[in-house]
Amino acid sequence: MGGRAVVAGVGMIPFTTPSRTETYDVMGTKAARAALADAGLAYEKIQQAYAGYVYGDSTCGQAVVYGLGQTGIPVVNVNNNCSTGSSALFLARQAVESGVVDAVLAVGFEQMQRGALAMAYTDRPTPFDRFNAVMDQIQERDDAPFAAQMFGGAGRQYAERYGTSPETFAKISVKSRRHAANNPYAVFRDPVTVEEVLASPHIYGPLTRLQCCPPTCGAAAAVLVSEEFAKANGIDASVVIRAQAMTTDFPSTFAEPDMTKIVGYDMAKAAAESVYEASGVAPTDLRVVELHDCFTANELLTYEALGLTPEGTAEKFVQDGDNTYGGRVVTNPSGGLLSKGHPLGATGLAQCAELVWQLRGQAEARQVAGEPTLALQHNIGLGGAAVVTLYEKVN
After folding, report:
1. Which residues are part of the catalytic machinery?
2. d(Cα 216, Cα 19) in Å, to the nearest integer?
3. 224: which strand partners?
4. CA 44 → CA 1, 22, 36, 253, distances in Å?
5. Which of 94, 122, 140, 199 is 20 to 30 A distant from 320 in Cα terms?
6. pLDDT tens across 290-344, in order?
């Protein structure tokens, strides 16, 4: 046991709006079954499971996994805000690479309610107290959703710093819908124009409604195995996790009045740099990336945090079309959180599924040209955690 973790199978279900969703246990079990079928592996071979979700009671993971069978394996429930799915993947990868187990299931799911995200408990301190204290030094608060105030504030501060136009932010939404049109799993597949994006109701800072990800329900899963296990069981071992890093907030998040740091810029940058150092891969080697575009502002910031373009040049990156097909690196071929949807616990594993399909050449109309052999994933949750994962096609 031990060595690199092979992504043996991935699966997901079409994402939906809360009004059209199945229950979380049904969604999660379906996604897990799809991943097992993709791997060609019976559930009885799985030795551990990591289940990610944000909105749900304790042991929801068991309710999902028990839909596959009751084999007595450890089931670990994971909650790390919007990076929950990638956090479950991180733990599964560690378990395989350490040699503790040979076959692990990571599954993420979310049954969300309509409307903006809100705190579940009002009778105790919120994990965002420190963030709010810094944010109050920077900008006026209003009745906009708190996440939109954070990311919208970061977008406004970035735009003031570099002179970024509102149209540049809007073009990210246009690109997202164009990509999602080819994704049968995506919620929003109809095209939009820059004019329509800018004319949609204003939310906060540069953000309009069509620049904010929707509340979404869905599930996704991945099966990770050791290389030896894959060989012994006739499993496709062509996609491996070459490097992965997870970071949390640094003192810099709270040390200065900078909204870009409040929304995780330094976490993302540190995680990406760790992955590049560990793998020997440079950002210029990448041709496909799934990144955390919960708002257009965060996609713009993340181009620079991941090193896809130098600091201060994200607007040119967008205007030149270097973020899409025919450009330098296709970002969010799935449509991303903005158009595919953002069921919090499932997002990181849905990103994993998209990138595995891209590396296998199975992404159909979304397929990135040139047979990419490397793919980068970025998933972030405020409060905070950032997970960056580098996948490689090895044969």
Report:
1. 82
2. 9
3. 7, 104
4. 18, 26, 10, 44
5. 199
6. 999 999 999 999 999 999 999 999 999 999 999 999 999 999 999 999 999 999 9
